[in-house]
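Weekly puzzle thread! Below is a chain. First person to post its structure in token form gets bragging rights.
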Amino acid sequence: MKSIKYLIPAVLMLILGAGLLLLPEKQKTKETAPNQLLAELFDQTRYVSTDRVAERLINQDPVLFLIDVRMADYYQEYSLPGAANIPLEDILNPDWKDYLAQEGMDIVFFANSDLYAEQAWMLAKRMGYHNLYVMKGGLNRWFETIIKPKKPAETASGDEFELYDFRRGASQYFTGGGQVDSDNAIAEPVIVSRKKKKTAVEGGC
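Winning reply:
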């Protein structure tokens, strides 16, 4: 079990190292130190649950900024309400700086699972950006917990039933009252265009 615990951060660091080969020279002075980044890889507070994301979306939290790091065609098929699309391969592009460096905003990366979102988190963190998070489990987990929540067993605790009630309500909120299949679900995407330098960032969530 311990070997698995340390294997995951090691693999993530290898992925990070490969990604940093693409990092422009002029931005390397702002990088987070490797030892600090390694320490933060063990910090689970970078993860945000799908329940928490749903709650913040429902409450229209103005400091929540979701970034879908999948390719544009997947994003157009389905994404979370209000999410911007910055594909993983473009995260290092300086044109996106205004989106990643928003003061006072919580930047939450997500994809279908954790892999691409983790890579985006590491690259952005290495570049010196702050308030970065990963939606744990990605859209796969989103559909399991929010869109199609499963009723707990009769022997489940009161807390589990309370969470289930929240998820049922969230499911109705995000699907317009009926559950949907991921193949047919269409959210309201935010079309993000690359910004010119020194251009103010619009919007929040």
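Puzzle host: Confirmed. Bonus trivia for everyone else. The helical segments are 2-20, 34-41, 50-58, 72-77, 97-100, 115-126, 138-147, 158-175.
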